[in-house]
Design a protein that fits this description.
Elements (H helix, E strand, L loop, with lengths): L1 E3 H10 L1 H4 L5 H32 L10 E2 L3 E2 L4 H13 L1 E3 L5 E2 H5 L11 H7 L3 E2 L1
Parallel strand pairs: 5-6
Antiparallel strand pairs: 1-4, 2-3
Helix pairs in contact: 1-3, 3-4
Length: about 130
Amino acid sequence: MKMKNKQILAIYNNIWPIKQKQLPVKIGFAINKNLAAMDDAAKAYEEERMKILNRYGEKDENGLKKLEDGKEYLLKDKKAYKEAMDELWEIEADIPIHTVMMDDVEKCDSEKFDALTPFELEVLEFMIEE
């Protein structure tokens, strides 16, 4: 499945709490397979993000990135940084997705498993077939 970096990271960052739930075996297996498939793309994204930050981030006399209020990096050229990050967000990767059927997801409503919230279902939507 073709996915943009912004989609991959949204899923990758939000799927971890779902992974901790008591889920049907097929769903747990699919989550693990999909996380493994997305891992390379997420690592490549983070590596490139750090290069962009090093290019546009201000540095102190020791060569360390400067922070504003201890939270956000100070940037030399905010416009160029934003353009580079927007380009990075839009890059597509081909991710092999392991899917599950909606019937498998509906099993989460039984007492044996943890129920999925609407937000969690939205996170898993990419891997659910009707």
